[in-house]
Amino acid sequence: MGRLEGKTAIITGAARGMGAAHARGFVREGARVVLTDQRADLVGALAEELGSAALAMEHDVASWSGWQDVTREAISCFSKIDILVNNAGILGPTAPLAELEEAEYARVCAVNQHGIFLGMKAVLPSMVAEQRGSIVNVSSISGIVANYGFPNAAYVASKFAVRGLTKAAAVEYGRYNIRVNSVHPGFIYTPMMVEAAGEEGGDATSMIPLGRIGTDEEVTNLAIFLASDESSYITGAEHVIDAGMTIQ
């Protein structure tokens, strides 16, 4: 029996990278998954690969009406929502704060911060009705410390905000047996990492005590743990997975 047997999860940003790895891992552990992304072709192909346990939806996480459609479809197809993995995120421009355009800043926060708020707002009524649930909000080590190696105030601000949203929700909804945790990956080999630091991660490995870039599957293992009943006494916490980058 899988660790997520009988549970239904919504996973955003599921077309590639960590989101796609989470989708495969969750299905492997017995979950039914609603996979959302703005890249309809890629997320559709992933759902086809995963079979009847997966449903794909084109989805802009910064849209409230989009979130209403996703939760409505999840309940219609799978009857309930047990898990939300707020994985979707964008890097945005790397520029000094004084050179950052207001519209660029707002766009990053709309996806990385407001999208997570909307996701929790959308699923919480269903979870309250069931008196159980697990929400996993994907932040970054840039939500723990300032970025390594390049300026990106919008990204840092949005990822720090995820920590606050996570803690606020954990306090408010713990009495309904709903757990809310944040995950803070370091340098993980994904398309976003390559976009930011190149195929080899730039100088990142020199700052990593374990001396290597992480894999998306390693983050998936953490997400599965937090989504499962194995973490039933854990909520409101930051879970750093960075091979020691933020030790000091």
UniProtKB/TrEMBL annotation:
EC number(s) given by UniProt: 1.1.1.47
Pfam family, one: adh_short_C2
Domain of life of the source: Bacteria
GO molecular function, one term: glucose 1-dehydrogenase [NAD(P)+] activity
SUPFAM superfamilies per the UniProt record, alphabetical: NAD(P)-binding Rossmann-fold domains (SSF51735)
UniProt keyword annotations, A-Z: Oxidoreductase
Family: Belongs to the short-chain dehydrogenases/reductases (SDR) family.
NCBIfam families per record: PRK07231.1 (NF005559)
Identification of the protein by name: Glucose 1-dehydrogenase
